[in-house]
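Review box. Two proteins, two foldings.
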Amino acid sequence: MQNEFQENIVNEPDFAYEGKYSYADYLRWTIEERVELIKGKIFKMSPAPSCNHQQIVSTVLSTIYHYLKTKDSKVFTAPFDVRFPKKSKKDDEVFTVLQPDICIVCDLSKLDQRGCIGAPDLVVEILSAANNKKELKNKYEVYEESGVKEYWVISPQNQTFLAYKLSEAGKFIPTRLFVEGDIYCTELLPGFELNLEEVFSNLL
């Protein structure tokens, strides 16, 4: 009975726990709901994404995928673990694990069978009513501190697109707000165009 109890403690995170969880803890959990770790704290992910969310992911992913077909970079969609180490890459010393909606990794040495360790070059997050605060504050800070070169935030509700570009000083600088009908281009992906008419068309 004691061993069974100890096993449950290992496999079930305590959502009221005030301490700090690591990626090693994360790997042992057997809960069905998806969670992320931000600086050692557990964040429950939103329920199943909405139809509009999935449609935007599909459109953006398809555009990026076709662009990268002749490139040496790779694109991934959630669920896909991205670990953000601070000093050490050891599992018990990594305290932030996120699942971006879409991410592009140009340095393929960052990839392993468990996902990506280190900052992707580009991250895309689709906002929902449930996750706006987490995306705009907590994840923003992680992506900026870790050196993500571009962070795209797309709002299905407002049908807007905003990109944050990392400056030489290591700080995000926002672009203007893009809307349906605009085309977004980035120096990070020479020749790439994201047509926001296509991204926001036919949403429910």
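Next protein.
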Amino acid sequence: MIEFIRAGGLFALFTMFLPALALSEPLALGAPVTALSAASSTGGEKALWAIANGELIEADVKTGRLAKFVPAGLSEGGAINALTQGADGRLYVAGPGSGVWRYSTENQQWADLSETLPTLNVTAIAAHSTQAETLYVYVPEVGILRSRDGGSEWVQVDGGPQEAIRTFLHSNMPGSMESGWLFAGTPRGVARSMDCFCLWSDAGELRGEVSSLAYNFDSPMNVYAVIDGRLNHSADGGESWSAMAVPKDVSAVAYDSETGRLFAGTTDGNLLYREASGEWQGIRRD
């Protein structure tokens, strides 16, 4: 009888905490995360933005609450799988069949920036690190196009590296003969070029298909690359790389210089962040 009471008490204690446990479940987006960016939320606070299943998703880091946004004028059959944040905080998305769209978190409005593109088949997008109106996109079989007026006019500026660009970013890393550097993730590894497009070269000897890139704006020699599900870090601008231990397979990465947090999106749709101690925590629902 005593043992039965103890067991019953334990069961009652467990069931009492079940609602709290359910509310603290890891945040799951239901699909692999293809892109990440830490930017202002629609309410003005800091949020983590992700793309999963072709949707732009706002995740509240503190509460785990989600909101989804899709361009109202997105063409049938189009998808978005690329994301970047401009120097002014505005968000840009792109994807095959969708062209380029800008999203304003201030008024929750979309703007189609595809009118002067040669095709809607955009597979990667990068915003200039310091020039708010300068954007870059990659179009297969065309190359890299640049806009200096916020997407009103696109001009081809380079053919890109030898391999197709899956993801890329613009960095304020010093040493460029112009205004910065472009890092490109390709099926072969990471390539880089000054934004004068003088020459593309390998960024170190990291090999494999790169799905995401990020860097620290305040310490731009620190670059992060996701390759074949593994997160890698370079402290010397891509000269050398080392693998980072992450509890899940990673598909996307973002660095928030304001908070010093490194974020990762996983292949099973979770969102993680790295503590100062080096431990990874999952963003959870409140």
